[in-house]
Specification:
Shape: globular
Number of strands: 9
Largest sheet: 4 strands, antiparallel
CATH superfamily of the largest domain: Immunoglobulins
Distance between the termini: 47 Å
Number of helices: 1
Structural class: mainly beta
Strand content: 35-45%
Helix content: under 10%
Radius of gyration: 15 Å
Length: 138
């Protein structure tokens, strides 16, 4: 049986790496940082202001999704080779959340992902969604 890490690496290598031989690159919209049966909510807007990443989503609650599900946000900074994330930035029902970005990231570009985690037992997660490439304001 494969570990969760090995399964994630296998998926991302097959789905999120493009190019040939010595000319590989990451296809960020196809990267998954979480994968599971919990339904997602559509991302409506993502922006950065005053050092914070702001994400808004719709109120869709299908299947096992509830308004109390936790929101997970992740930002990947390629220039700094660094990631910041928060597994508990708010509830699905709040329709918006934010993630504070390091002040050293000013002027850098970040790849952003959002996912949801079941409120009651934290056992279910959603597929992560790519929320775009954004420039951290100066």
């Amino acid at each position: 049986m494969r570990s969760a890490f090995n399964a994630a690496m296998s998926y991302n290598i097959r789905q999120a790496i493009k190019g040939e031989a010595s000319d590989f690159e990451i296809d960020y919209p196809n990267v998954l940082v979480s994968k599971g049966p919990l339904p997602t909510s559509a991302i409506l807007q993502t922006s950065i202001s005053e050092g914070s990443l702001h994400v808004q989503w719709d109120a869709t609650c299908e299947g096992k999704a509830t308004l109390h599900d936790q929101v997970m946000i992740l930002a990947c900074n390629l220039e700094k080779k660094s990631v910041v994330y928060d597994l508990y930035t708010g509830k699905r029902g709040s329709l918006a959340s934010q993630l504070q970005l390091p002040s050293q990231w000013q002027g850098d570009t970040v790849e952003v992902y959002i996912a949801f985690m079941s409120a009651n037992d934290f056992n279910l997660v959603s597929y992560s969604q790519y929320a775009g490439r954004h420039r951290v304001g100066v």
